[in-house]
Design a protein that fits this description.
Blueprint (H helix, E strand, L loop, with lengths): L2 E5 L8 H14 L4 E5 L5 H5 L11 H6 L4 H4 L1 E2 L6 E4 L8 H5 L8 H12 L6 E5 L6 H9 L2 E7 L8 H14 L5 E10 L4 H14 L3 E7 L2 H5 L7 H4 L4 H15 L4 H10 L1
Parallel strand pairs: 1-5, 1-6, 2-4, 2-5, 6-7, 7-8
Antiparallel strand pairs: 3-4
């Protein structure tokens, strides 16, 4: 079965897009067929994967608003074999307003993915949905469509700020819209081994969320920041870098990860 994973955190700058595209590249190296859905109007995931997302390109806006199929809106990534992407154009910025009056507005992406599962050849092994830094209708569509959620948390002072609201939203979605949604992983990003603060934040997150946190953390790295400006992931831009290897390790761990982490997360969230 295809794993549909929403990469979400309403706090901006935590490494959602960076993690989505680099995990996609790492998973493809492991033989997985990956589809990345860019739900962020900024279109950064589309840029990093080298997929055209200028105005007029069929992408996530057309899927959500016009009912276009995922197949019509997905494009192969030029530098990453086995990865396709549904790009986000600037039109997506107005989608939240347009969705307000749409029938079954929370289910638009889910229904498109269900149709794609029957039409696509071959079917993707993993679908990664890069969510915007908000808890609006775009993110809600991702949470309703997904079976799992991966939460990137940066190793900074405000790491846990807003996370409680995200987890509350996940619980509401599970109760009313998508009972199969589970938080399968938390990924620590922007870790800096030189600072005590980074280590303290990592310890706090692991103490609070237990086995839900991946053992692999992603280091802060210049090459990781440079890669998108060349329309690449760090795995193609600098394959031997520490950051590239970290994402390979995180991808391997994520593939092996079972959904039992949800029990740990629920217990921690009630504490």
């Amino acid at each position: 079965m295809t794993r549909v994973v929403a990469v979400a955190n309403q706090k901006g700058g935590v490494g959602k897009t960076t993690s989505a595209v680099n995990l996609a590249a790492a998973l493809s190296e492991m033989g997985q067929r990956v589809l990345v859905i860019d739900l962020d109007p900024q279109g950064n995931a589309s840029t990093a994967l080298g997929v055209e997302h200028r105005l007029g390109v069929v992408g996530t806006y057309e899927v959500l608003i016009d009912g276009k199929s995922i197949g019509d809106a997905s494009y192969p990534c030029p530098d990453v074999a086995g990865v396709e992407a549904v790009p986000a154009t600037i039109d997506l910025a107005g989608a939240e307003i347009e969705l307000v009056s749409t029938v079954a507005r929370e289910y638009r992406l889910r229904r498109a993915l269900e149709a794609h599962a029957t039409d696509a050849t071959p079917v993707p092994d993993v679908i990664l949905i890069d969510c915007p830094p908000s808890l609006g209708l775009l993110t809600l569509n991702a949470l309703v469509a997904a079976s799992e959620i991966l939460i990137p948390i940066q190793c900074e002072y405000y790491a846990l700020e807003g996370l409680g609201q995200l987890l509350k939203t996940v619980e509401l979605v599970r109760a009313h819209l998508n009972p199969n949604l589970e938080v399968s992983a938390i990924l620590l990003t922007m870790a800096d081994a030189r600072t005590r603060l980074s280590a303290q934040v990592a310890e706090e997150v692991r103490a609070h969320f237990g086995e839900a946190v991946l053992a692999t953390s992603i280091p802060r790295a210049v090459r990781l920041s440079e890669a998108p400006s060349y329309g690449q992931t760090v795995l193609t831009y600098d394959p031997q870098s520490t950051a590239a290897q970290a994402y390979r390790d995180a991808a391997a761990e994520f593939l092996a990860r079972s959904s039992t982490a949800q029990a740990e997360l629920s217990t921690a969230g009630d504490a």
